[in-house]
Records
---
Amino acid sequence: MTHHIKIPKGWEMPEHDLTPESIFMNRREVLQAMGWVGALSASLLYGCAPGSSEVTNAHPETNLTPLEKKLYPATRVTRYKLDRRVTEEAVAASYNNYYEFSEVKEDVDHHAQKLKTRPWQVEVTGLVEQPKTYDLDDLLKKFHLEERFYRHRCVEAWAMAVPWTGFPLKALLDDVKPLSKARYVRLVSFHEPFTAQGQIAFWQPWPYSEALTVKEAMNELTLLTTGVYGHPLPKQHGAPVRLIAPWKYGFKSIKAIQRIELIDTKPQTFWNTLQPHEYGFTANVNPDIPHPRWPQTKEKMIGTGEIRLTQLYNGYGDFVADLYS
Ligand code: MTE
């Protein structure tokens, strides 16, 4: 394989190097059309649209609730520029890290379908003026969804470029009003060892949890994510709601969030507890901090195999560098 090394030009990217968006948009129109065809055939077969509580999202692009049909695809925010082609959806959806279901990335897609993602609630609690529990549909109705194309960088030195849909975590935090003594935002996933075979490993600190400082959580890039590629998240990507913090290694971007707690001391997190020398708490993408197993100066794009030089903060320094000065 020939490796094509490309010097990135920062987060403002030359237009000619951008996503072949016409291709993406055409695919999206096709998917939307398929959604309509799917909905039409479902209503012909079953006489009415399925109720939201019965809907599974194994095939999220063709099996939307009426609310989701209204919301997806969301309007794209062009402020967050890509410097590379969007990863093919089929590639991104079949190469996943989700240790609750499998340690083999290519098997996650299959096993993750076992998780029941509706009904789903997210509890927001701890050091806040107004603790609240949101039903998934409450989140979708209350917060304005937008689409953002982000680079997605795993500590294992692979990368993708992904169109996520969601809303800023800040909007949710503003809704519950953090108290001034809150310092960290802890995010916790589900715990169902009978569903998720990985959680049988009782010696691991399940449920998966992650955390950000309140300042990081309030940063405009931090996205509470409900969709991808113009439709709701499929289960392997962390349905029904996950985090995306694109300037950090992917393990910070916790999937299937059930609880968000505001706390005043730095919490234990999943990978940092298991292997602290490999997975730091802050975990900002940084080519100058070597990892014991994966050199961090370069990254390989999944799908194309293209090799890129890794950028500090994954290229998002203009948005986040002042958090660390
Ligand atoms: N969230 C949970 N609950 N469990 C996990 O194992 N893996 C993380 C993160 N979120 C993980 C998780 C890791 S290591 C990465 S790189 C990203 O999810 C991968 O996201 P993707 O599969 O959507 O690309």
---
Amino acid sequence: MRILGIETSCDETSAAIVEGQPNNYKVRFLSNVVTSSLNLHSETGGIIPEIAAREQVKYIIPVIKKALTLYSSSDQAKPESREVNNETMKQLNNETIDAIAVTVGPGLIGSLLVGVETARTLSYVWKKPIIPVNHLIGHIYANFIQRTDDRRQKADVFSPPIFPAIALIVSGGHTDLVLLKNHGAIKWLGGTRDDAAGEAFDKIGRLLNLPYPGGPAIEKEAKMGNPKAHPFPRPMINSKDFDFSFSGLKTAALREIQGVRTYSSSESRAKSRESREVPRDKFSTGSNNKIISNMAASVQQAIIDVLVTKTLKAAQKYKVKSILLGGGVAANQKLRDELQLKIENFKLKIQLSVPPKDLCTDNAAMIATAAFFNYKKVPWQKITANPELYFE
Ligand code: KG4
Ligand code: ZN
């Protein structure tokens, strides 16, 4: 079975083809094309929904065509040399595609509609079924993809996650812990009460004048900083539930930054000495860069400590066999390493599964894979975009 996946929930426009055999828990990835309007949003430091939707309209058909071209090409290195005209596209679909998977939510309504309407049209014209996919569940299924373009993931090496499993979904819009007893048997355990982990990275990145998105920029800066330089709060780390809260961290970071900025500006130094909230000796005397990297390392550590502690608590409570990471923040190497280290330190018999980094952020391969394991066809007339979609 081959599924064409379509993902347009935010600023990425993506199409992918995955292939899998029923009763075999491995899904191969045949093509995955992702384009993003991110650079148009970096000036404003956040996604402008109207612009994201307009860019989706521009890219959706070329991206689908490219995914089909890559798939049909024996020479995958030069897909541009092969043009897929409408006739070929029709044939390709009839020969190759069994179903269309599309993200129906959550996300930005304008962006979601582009993918959903394209999938509905293709389903009608191609007479192929549609499988609607929850974007958050899609992030979990990035862990079930076996890549053909990654040597480390050759067929014999790749082993899909084992149930029961805890999944931590950490993205720009969500931070959720869910229990998976099997495919389709998902129980939501907790989530953020305010900002998502990725949102905290992005907002604090902006405060530090780092490029958007803040997550990768903070990770890069943090490598040169001291994670103990600023003792930021670890919100809700010891709460009995599986909820999170990251908005207080942003406020704490702002206070520290104001302290740093006041401190580093000679003009205002004397004036604000009394009102300074952060003691002067907290900051090393180095350059501004050192201040930023210390802030980045400390913020990153605070977020990771909370994510790791809560995830392990859920894993132990539900006696799971695997922990799965998903979402853009799962690309953070320190988060991956610390989770693995703690699993080993606590001598837990838990397998940690992390998607390849480029499959942590939004992509259509994860959407097609989620559809493969949760194959529920819905007539095209009944498919609707739902920006507020969550876990049932
Ligand atoms: O999953 P995603 O691509 O989009 C949403 O569904 O939101 O996640 C984007 C988020 C952004 O907030 C970005 O800052 C964060 O993932 N992110 C990271 C890293 N790479 C992306 N956060 C921390 N470390 C990273 N390396
Ligand atoms: Zn996402």
